[in-house]
Design a protein that fits this description.
Elements (H helix, E strand, L loop, with lengths): L16 H11 L2 E5 L5 E5 L2 H9 L3 E2 L15 H6 L11 H12 L2 H6 L1 H15 L5 E2 H6 L1 H11 L6 H12 L8 H21 L5 H7 L9 H15 L1 H16 L1 H9 L4 H11 L7 E5 L3 E3 L2 E3 L4 E4 L1 H4 L34 H18 L4 E2 L21 E3 L2
Parallel strand pairs: 2-8
Antiparallel strand pairs: 1-2, 3-5, 4-10, 5-8, 6-7, 9-10
Helix pairs in contact: 4-11, 6-8, 6-17, 8-12, 9-10, 10-12, 13-17, 15-17
The chain binds protoporphyrin IX containing FE (HEM).
The site of protoporphyrin IX containing FE has 24 residues, from helix 12, helix 13 and helix 17.
Protein name: Cytochrome P450
Family: Belongs to the cytochrome P450 family.
Pfam families: p450
Length: about 400
């Protein structure tokens, strides 16, 4: 693969990310670029190409992607305990694991969790009551999803602080790589112990459900179980933080918009879909490796090449969505790519939607006068091109 023409279109960009992506969609919709690791990748930015790439069986998953491998940073047993999950494997292994996990992570389990998520959310909002100014990410958007994940999995309350600390280190591993190996080692050791405890005393939680999950004689192995818990953390935590954070920013950015949702809470389910489309939590962390030569939008992709699909860009493609750059809470729902597409379509989408809806209901009901504490231009996005989220969201609860 030639590297001479490769650049990173985001590296020196002072322009708004969406402007960069719009230019790429227009001029170089399948572009070879250099990643911060030094590896090269093909970046896909148009909706139709993105959708095709995500269903192309020649584009698969591997355990080391784009120059990043756990084997370079932790002992082999730890690396293998976090590498046997759905986002590192292909059919038929993927089909088998997804079927087993889906049998335990059911719509019924998610729906039954609603009152508990509401309670956790109200409790966090109680703590915000009376503050003149606070960071909504710190106070609400960050803690809520990790508390939900801990309770769902069955992490005992006395362990949740450590679990959250390791999860923080893993979530921020892209910006602070030094914190990653010790957190991985600690969390794998912890999950091993938790598995042993759940085997001895099964409870009505997802981890016990995953241990019990069977498909004829088939069950998940220990490495697969540990990897699954790990995947829930990396796939389900920061993404949901970003849904709540980005969504609240967009609703507050125009005070009439916030007022409208306060007055018409029935808009919220539709609003969540539009917020996911307009400023979704995942920029381009949907990576694939070409298992055989293939083609995307007329561009030949050689075997072994690394491909990044920008969901954020695809969801702003004017060929798919009318007035794509307008946030329109009344937009009729048209399926978008925020949760991916094809066999790896987000398994946690029903939970994420539920959390988003509960969060926006609770925030608008409890804080109808909330406003941004700084001009919208001063609110910063986190660096990195994989996810799309805020560093902080200063608000005056009102
Ligand atoms: C996969 C987005 C929340 C669990 C994915 C993928 C995307 C995504 C784009 C596909 C990745 C790919 O194709 O490479 C999101 C967004 C969320 C969210 C935007 C929040 C708004 C969650 C939650 C959980 C979760 C809360 C679990 C509790 C998973 C799992 C997969 C996945 C297990 C892998 C599925 C597979 O490979 O078959 N997610 N996710 N996600 N997500 Fe989510």
């Amino acid at each position: 693969m030639s590297t001479s023409a490769a650049v990173n279109p985001f590296a020196s960009a002072k322009a708004d990310l969406h402007e960069v992506l719009a230019n790429l969609r227009r001029d170089r919709p399948v572009m070879e670029m250099t990643l911060p690791t030094g590896a090269t990748a093909w970046l896909v930015t148009r909706y139709e190409d993105a959708q095709r790439a995500l269903t192309d069986p020649k584009l698969g998953k591997t355990t080391s992607a784009g120059g990043f491998s756990y084997r370079d940073m932790v002992p082999p047993d730890v690396a293998s305990a976090v590498s046997r999950h759905m986002l590192t494997i292909n059919p038929p292994d993927h089909t088998r694991i997804r079927r087993l996990v889906s049998g335990a992570f059911t719509a019924r389990r998610v729906a039954a969790f609603r009152p508990r998520i509401e309670e956790l959310s109200e409790r966090l909002l109680d703590e915000m009551e009376g503050s003149d100014r606070l960071d909504l990410i710190d106070s609400f958007a960050f803690p809520l999803p990790i508390q939900v994940l801990c309770e769902l999995l069955g992490v005992p309350s006395e362990d949740q602080a450590s679990f959250r600390r390791w999860s923080d280190a893993i979530v921020t591993g892209g910006v602070n790589p030094a914190g990653l190996p010790p957190a991985l080692i600690a969390i794998v050791a912890y999950i091993r112990e938790l598995l042993a405890a759940k085997r001895e005393r099964p409870a009505d939680d997802l981890l016990s459900g995953l241990i019990e999950a069977r498909d004829n004689d088939d069950r998940l192995t220990d490495d697969e179980l540990i990897s699954m818990v790990y995947l829930f953390l990396i796939a389900g935590h920061e993404t949901t933080v970003n849904l709540i954070g980005n969504g609240t920013l967009l609703l507050l950015a125009e005070p009439e918009r916030w007022a409208r949702v306060v007055a018409e809470p029935e808009l919220i389910p539709n609003a969540v879909e539009e917020l996911l489309r307009y400023e979704g939590p995942v920029q381009s962390s949907t990576f694939r490796t070409a298992m055989a030569p293939t083609e995307i939008g007329g561009q030949a992709i050689p075997e072994g090449a690394f491909v990044l699909v920008s969901l954020l860009s695809a969801n702003r493609d004017g060929d798919r969505f009318a007035n794509a750059d307008q946030l329109d809470l009344d937009r009729p729902v048209t399926p978008n790519l925020a949760f991916g597409h094809g066999i790896h379509y987000c398994l946690g989408a029903p939970l994420a939607r539920l959390e988003g809806q509960i969060a926006f209901h609770a925030l608008t009901r409890r804080f109808p006068k909330m406003r941004l504490a700084v001009p919208v231009e001063e609110i910063a996005w986190r660096p990195g091109m994989l996810l799309r989220g805020l560093t902080a969201l200063p608000v005056i609860p009102g």
